[in-house]
Each structure stands twice: as structure tokens, then as C-alpha cells.
Write the C-alpha cells for this entry.
Amino acid sequence: MHVLHTLRRAGAVLLLAAATLYAAPAHPAAADEPGWTAEPAAGAAATVRPYFYLAGAAGTVLEDRLALANTTDQERTVTLRGADAYNTADGAFAVRPAAPAAGATGATGAGSWISFGAATTVKVPPRTRAVVPFTLTVPPASPPGDHPAAVIATEGGHEVGVRVHLRVGGPSLAALTVEDVAVRGRGPAAVIAYTLVNRGNVALVPDLRISAEALLGEVSDPPRGRTLPVELLPGQRVELTEPWPGAPALDRVRVTLTVTAPGGARAVATGSRWLVPRGPAGWTGAGLLGLGAATAAALHLVRGRRRPLPGPDPDPDAPPEAGPTNPAPHHELTGAAR
């Protein structure tokens, strides 16, 4: 089972890392193809790597190589740096921008551990492929787990990012919470909004399951189970939505979200809301719902105050019952027969 979870997680990470890492500002069409590429240099087996994967204990120095390929007929001057990675509010993978020259600190996480030495600026001749080594020095006090980062190559206003997936040795913890569950919108435009928070120290690719119930009638569940297209980095918080086109038009609904991830992470949260149409129909529906609620409350109150029916009148000739003011007669028993 551990091997299955590892393969599944690795496949999801590869799929996410294969997409563009860094979204640069819009440029003319010519700038979309700068004439050069940046990618991890092929390993000993000449395998293509979509990202760097480095692992080691705190206090160690790790090494790898970046390949720059110039496909044009002119020399290219490429600037290299390390950058911290994070999740945007909607869950996308992004990197921190370069620090301004005026005393800003720049990267403070794993991005600051990356060094190209004297090769921070590389001149790549025409039709040439250059391989640039770099080191990643893990500080001695680094906590265990995943430390997301990236290598950023910049030339002529164009930036290319290559992800660095760093795992520092030690105990790993897969933990998350789901928060702020709410139903928004109405009818076919209804969505279920929620927030996911990675409380552990490893990146997570969560699975989501949703169930729903209504107060007055039947309700169709939202899309049930799927793997979210998000890699949730340690310590990050993302705000997501799920469409619910089958939400009732007039009812009180309650949705339950169950989120799981490899490594034993699991979280459950619920949210509820009255769904009422807009306009006159909505006011009418709200009035009917209010009337029904008031009627139910009144019936409950009446039932709570109802007393049992009185019994028959007592017989005046019957002997009084024993009690605190009328003790029962005492009968003395002896051993002599009469």
C-alpha cells in the first residue's frame, strides 16, 4: 500500500510539474519563444527530468545541473537564481519574484539555499547547449519534510522556472484541515466553497468527496469523488470551489466534505444554508418556509404543555391512603398461635 501511495503521488506531482511553472507577464508573440530553454540536465541514464528532485539530511550539500540550450544564431546572456515556491490563493504553483535592489531580502526559504557560485550570469553561444552546475546547501537546523523551491532563468524579460522538489530527511507528517465550507449562488450557478490548509510537512495531492442533504425534499449530490488538480504545499492555504448545478431552488441544504491524501491525512467539515430564489417567488418561498417553521414550533410548544387527563373522583368512603400525614397502622407479630 505504501508503494501504491508513493507511485500515485509521484504521478500526480509529475503531471503538475510538467505544466508551466512560472507565469510571466504578457508579451508580444515573439517573446513567447525566446529561442532558448532551461531544464534539468539529463542524468546518467540520459533520462528526461521535468524537475529537480533532491533529498538529504539537514546540514548536507546537494548538487545538480541545469541545462541551457540556445537555438538561435545569436549569443544569449541568461541570469540564474533560486526562488521560494508557494501556492496562490486558488491553488496554483508559483514562485517568489526576484528581490529589488533596494535592500529587500528576497528568498528566505529553500530558494535561498540554491547557489550557482560565479555562474549566476551565463553567456550561451549560438546553437550551443550549456550545462551549469549548482549546489543546494541545507542548513543544519532545517526541519524535516518538503521544502518547495525553483530555479529561475531570465533573459530579455523572459523567465523560465524549473521546480526543485527538496525533501529533508526526518519524520514526515501528512495532515490537513478543510475549513470555511459554504454554499454560494443559486440554481445551476450554485457552488460549494471551501478552504484547504496543509498542516503537515509534506506536499499533498488531496482527494475530495462531497455529500449533501436537504431539510424538506430530496437533493442530488454534487460530483462525488475526484482527485483535486492541486498540489498543496506544506503550510499553505488555498480557497477552492466545486460546481453544484443540481442544488435545490428552495430548501435548507447541508453539505459534508471529506478530504483525504496519501499518508493518512483526512479531514471532514460541513456547511449549511437556506437556498431561496430571488424576486417575488423567493419572497413567497421564504414566507412559506417561515410559516412552516412557525407551525412546527407551535405544535412542539403545545405538545410540551399538554397535561394528562384527570382520573375518576375519589371515593369518600374509602380509607385514606398512607402518607406523611397519615401513617399506615402498625401490626405486631408474635410467635404465639391464636
